[in-house]
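User: I'm writing a tutorial on reading structure tokens. Could you give me a worked example: one chain, its sequence, then its tokens, then a sentence or two explaining what the tokens reveal?
Assistant: Sure. Here is the example chain.
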Amino acid sequence: MILPLEQQVCSLESAKRLKEFGVKQESLFYWVLFNGKWEIFVGLPSMLKCQYNEKINGDQLLYSQNGEISLYLSKLKECYEYVSCFICSELLELLPDDTELTRRQHQYYICNCDIGENPQWTHCRQDHLNATESCAKMLIYLLENKLITLEKTDGKQE
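And here are its predicted structure tokens:
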């Protein structure tokens, strides 16, 4: 079963929270505010270029989730806001090494991690119907409670 793109990426709310915490805005997908509506796009708007694009008559094109050409790069300057729309594997790279993601009863995903050393470690758990959102919520929880910090330059935890 192929999941819709919206179920493979973190929610717009989580994406905005992660940006607030200083998570580096580099990902395969982006939530882009264009013409008053948030849409998911492939590419790297901050650099005004596309990673996954085609050149037609020298113009670079940005593709939306449905694969249609939906936005010329020159119009990206009209986009006043965008945030990284992380996929699960991108978030797992930002989480502590011992983070586990499991699926229970074909209903929801559990993201677990232990922070610190025994006997004073902290066990953290986040549940969600979407694996990516479970990881996003875990990263938000860890950052919000200052259990980890991220370097803004490369995104790796300290």
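What the tokens reveal: The chain has three helices and nine strands. Strands lie at 29-34, 37-42, 55-56, 59-63, 69-72, 81-85, 100-104, 108-115, 122-128.
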